[in-house]
């Protein structure tokens, strides 16, 4: 076949014909060689350009985009997909154009999903649904809805994800597409697995497997593995092994991901049956296969730590735990960098929009000034002879002057708004940095080191896990403007639990939420409360001897307000100030300065203001009994 295509190339000089032959040649290397497939696709693309054949150019560009996405070269994938879309948009309307645009919007969604920009992926997939709606393309619509669900699943928005999977399933039922039905049941089962509703999970996985059993594919094998995982969780090891062995029947020897999962599940079953030597060997094989799959390696390392502990090989368990911690910290740092980068991108985007608006206003002012000067010149030439015409131009001049003044005022207001937006973006970055207080992080790491030195390995492990969860929460919520009261309370509890461990038995806290408050339903601004709690501990309780107590209470004095009352029995503000002055430390806390700046900006741009009141708690003899901070926060 390839020889025939190459012979045809030697005998034709028509660029369009050459483009078609190169395209056909590339297709013969689809499952054999990425480099040769790419070589011939580029030849096809170049020949189409020379022959001015837009259809051939579009086909080659589309295939190059798909290949580049498969290779992970997302910039090139977007470049070629944009070329293909431009060509399609020049075509006359019709079903073929609508189908092409539907597919291209879906491909945009897949690329941005791979990049991790899930919101942009969803936007393109919604466009795909709109195009599919116009021509009643049921399969395309169902596929786009399923992909939107998978994006929401990646964003941990399980409720929206399930909604789209069920809508996709409804369309799949309508067009009787068994493969789409199986995929959606599998996705819904995964959501219930995250909720630890194992019976419901099994129910949906079995629906998926019953549908795909008639034509077993890799999807059928994957569902068998998922069912095996559920039975391992339910401690039904015979059933787990039955499904796992059936999945093995459909393994073709090429899918490394399946082989890793298969070996890990076998090891877990052996471990739970007390077959430790077999469990160790199976886990080792899985680990060796997963050298380039860091996500799988984390799961394997967790299991290996348990196996080595069970066999009494504590040094090996500790080594595996260190490797696991290093790998998890790597992901944590990547998430931190991504969170800060997202804030910077938002700021730069707003900055560019602002600069564009300023430039447009400057052009308007220049045009107004030019018009004004023209009017003055004409009036000065003919004013002597035609009084009436001069009067008309005089009024025109006044009108243009007022217009120019209005434009100047708009420009000033725009510049003020831009400055305010810049300050607000800067304050978000400072607030993120404030919640990641380096002193707190240093103290936590010191405590972990002390536990390790004292051979308190379990305590060190628990402490490190809590610390990692806290930092992950900060990074996750710093990227959004609001947070549910439930998430705020959970994050505070993680932070206070770490402080409790550091202070040992001398510090206690109490988190209170009034019965009339439903934390899941209320949203408040992010990064507001924690700096005040940290300030109470650092400046009020840290220097106090004896029992240290902190209370954080949430009340609801009005329908649309939440009050957060932070009370400590520390040394009080006056004594804290004296201690700082005695040490020559008079600068204001970075965290408190950052949060104060953010509150000021928030109140300036919002109708509902956040109020703060700080009270000194005094005894009968005016001795300091502690400090109370009352934050009045409007619900979002």
Protein model, in words:
This protein has 24 helices and 7 strands. With 636 residues, it is an alpha+beta fold. A hairpin with a 5-residue loop joins strand 6 and strand 7. The longest helix has 69 residues. The protein starts with a helix and ends with a strand.
Separation of termini? 65 Å
Radius of gyration, in Å, reads 33 Å
- By DSSP, the count of extended strands is 7
Helix content: over 70%
Estimated share of beta-strand residues: 5-15%
How are the strands of the largest sheet arranged? 2-4-5-7-6
SS summary, helix count: 24
Offer a concise description of the structure.
The protein is α+β, with helices and mostly antiparallel strands and 636 residues long. It has helices at 2-11, 15-27, 34-50, 54-71, 74-89, 95-115, 118-135, 138-154, 158-174, 178-194, 198-212, 218-233, 237-249, 256-272, 276-289, 294-310, 314-382, 387-435, 438-453, 457-478, 485-503, 530-541, 572-582, 590-605, and strands at 482-484, 507-513, 523-525, 548-558, 561-568, 611-618, 624-634.
What is this structure's SSE topology?
Layout: H1 2-11, H2 15-27, H3 34-50, H4 54-71, H5 74-89, H6 95-115, H7 118-135, H8 138-154, H9 158-174, H10 178-194, H11 198-212, H12 218-233, H13 237-249, H14 256-272, H15 276-289, H16 294-310, H17 314-382, H18 387-435, H19 438-453, H20 457-478, E1 482-484, H21 485-503, E2 507-513, E3 523-525, H22 530-541, E4 548-558, E5 561-568, H23 572-582, H24 590-605, E6 611-618, E7 624-634
Parallel strand pairs: 2-4
Antiparallel strand pairs: 1-3, 4-5, 5-7, 6-7
Helix pairs in contact: 1-2, 2-3, 3-4, 4-5, 5-6, 6-7, 6-8, 7-8, 8-9, 8-10, 9-10, 10-11, 11-12, 12-13, 12-14, 13-14, 14-15, 14-16, 15-16, 16-17, 17-18, 17-20, 18-24, 19-20, 20-21
């Amino acid at each position: 076949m390839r020889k025939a295509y190459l012979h045809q190339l030697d005998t034709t000089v028509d660029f369009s014909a050459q483009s078609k032959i190169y395209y056909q040649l590339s297709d013969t290397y689809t499952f054999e060689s990425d480099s040769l497939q790419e070589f011939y696709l580029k030849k096809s693309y170049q020949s189409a350009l020379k022959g001015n054949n837009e259809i051939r150019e579009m086909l080659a560009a589309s295939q190059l985009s798909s290949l580049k996405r498969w290779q992970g070269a997302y910039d090139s994938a977007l470049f070629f997909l944009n070329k293909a879309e431009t060509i399609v948009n020049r075509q006359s309307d019709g079903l073929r154009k609508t189908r092409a645009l539907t597919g291209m919007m879906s491909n945009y969604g897949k690329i941005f999903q791979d990049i991790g920009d899930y919101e942009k992926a969803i936007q393109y997939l919604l466009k795909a649904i709109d195009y599919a709606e116009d021509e009643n393309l049921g399969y395309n619509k169902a596929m786009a809805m399923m992909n939107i669900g998978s994006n929401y699943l990646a964003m941990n928005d399980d409720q929206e994800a399930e909604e789209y999977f069920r809508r996709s399933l409804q369309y799949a039922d309508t067009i009787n597409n068994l493969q789409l039905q199986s995929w959606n049941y599998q996705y819904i089962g995964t959501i219930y697995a995250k909720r630890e509703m194992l019976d419901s999970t099994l129910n949906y996985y079995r629906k998926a497997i019953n549908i795909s059993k008639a034509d077993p594919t890799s999807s059928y094998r994957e569902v068998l593995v998922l069912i095996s995982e559920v039975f391992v969780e339910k401690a039904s090891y015979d059933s787990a092994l039955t499904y796992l062995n059936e999945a093995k029947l459909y393994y073709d020897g090429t899918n490394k991901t399946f082989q890793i999962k298969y070996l890990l599940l076998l090891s877990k079953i052996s471990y739970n049956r007390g077959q430790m030597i077999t469990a160790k060997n199976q886990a080792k094989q899985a680990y060796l296969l997963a050298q380039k799959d860091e996500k799988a390696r984390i799961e394997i390392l967790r299991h290996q730590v348990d196996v080595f502990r069970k066999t009494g090989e504590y040094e090996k368990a500790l080594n595996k735990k260190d490797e696991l911690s290093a790998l998890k910290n790597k992901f944590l740092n990547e998430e931190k960098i991504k969170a800060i980068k997202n804030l910077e991108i938002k700021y730069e985007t707003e900055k560019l929009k602002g600069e564009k608006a300023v430039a447009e206003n400057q052009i308007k002012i220049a045009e107004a000034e030019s018009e004004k000067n023209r009017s003055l010149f004409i009036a000065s030439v003919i004013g002597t002879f035609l009084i009436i015409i001069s009067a008309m131009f005089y009024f025109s001049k006044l009108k243009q002057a007022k217009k120019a003044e209005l434009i100047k005022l708009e420009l000033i207001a725009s510049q003020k708004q831009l400055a305010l937006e810049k300050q607000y973006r800067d304050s978000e970055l400072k607030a993120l940095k404030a919640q990641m207080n380096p002193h707190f992080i240093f103290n936590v790491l010191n405590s972990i080191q002390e536990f390790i030195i004292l051979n308190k390995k379990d305590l060190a492990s628990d402490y490190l896990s809590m610390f990692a969860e806290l930092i992950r929460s900060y990074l996750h919520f710093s990227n959004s403007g609001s947070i549910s009261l439930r998430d705020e309370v959970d994050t505070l509890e993680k932070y206070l639990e770490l402080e409790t461990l550091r202070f040992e038995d001398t510090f206690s806290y109490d988190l209170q939420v009034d019965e009339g408050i439903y934390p899941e339903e209320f949203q408040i601004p992010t990064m507001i409360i924690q700096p005040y709690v940290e300030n109470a501990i650092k400046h009020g309780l840290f220097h106090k001897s004896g029992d240290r107590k902190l209370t954080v209470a949430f009340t609801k004095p009005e329908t649309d307000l939440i009050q957060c009352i932070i009370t400590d029995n520390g040394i009080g503000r006056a004594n804290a100030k004296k201690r700082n002055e005695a040490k020559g430390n008079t600068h204001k806390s970075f965290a408190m300065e950052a949060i104060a700046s953010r509150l000021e900006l928030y109140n300036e741009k919002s109708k509902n203001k956040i109020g703060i009141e700080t009270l000194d708690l005094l005894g009968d003899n005016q001795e300091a009994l502690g400090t109370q901070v009352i934050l009045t926060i409007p619900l979002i």
